[in-house]
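YM 10:42: CRISPR system ring nuclease SSO1393-like domain-containing protein sequence, as discussed on the call
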Amino acid sequence: MNRKKCLIALVGHHPKRLKLSIDKEIVDKILFIKEKESISGSDKQLEAIRELNHYYKQQLIQTEISEFSFREQTLPIAELTYTICLQKLLGFDDVSVNISGGLRYMVIWFYIACLITHTDVIHGDFKYKGDEEVGINYNMNIVRIPLSEPTEKQYEFLELFFSNFDDIINCIKNQENFSEILQFVKGYDSIENLKNKYNERINNQRDITRGSINGYLKKLKKISAIETMVNPENKVEKSIQITYLGIAFVLNRLFIKFLQK
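YM 10:58: structure's back
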């Protein structure tokens, strides 16, 4: 059986290099990613994505354009993780990300999302005449470095930062926008409240201490899945939030555990 391939392509200001790279691949669908916010160079990016979309539609390749926000650092990690999961649910068993045309500040967040989802990252090995790309030798797969991920127990702890997992699973199944996922993310204004929620979660089968909670937080902060800040109201208690990286970890695990069947 032929594998259906979806290529997710970052679009910058120069469509030529991306064409050279994409044309080396056999794909069923191309999902172009552009920046949502209007900044310097946005007009060039819009022209590039229109040109690319028209070019590949003429070749009868399914195309889609999606806008990501890059204003908040690490947000694209969670959004791309969600997007990759959706493409797999749509039946694309081979998903890869092409960063040949992406702007530098976009590429790093996408690379991390690919580490989380174990997705191939592609970049063209171009031929140059002066500073201009005039051809391509091949597409190289960028090496994926090992990434520290939460343990099973730590994943259970991270579930406390979502109001309802069933709603999130339904969002993924219904292919809702990523913004719908974020409405189910919650935080805590004190370690005591988080401790009480954890005890409630395990039906008070054992009393979780503040020390145990601090142990979870320390380990999850080490892999940037959680962040804590001193509560400005009393200058003593900590407010605890899951990061976009933590959200990405949880979304990918949800897909593997509950949806990839």
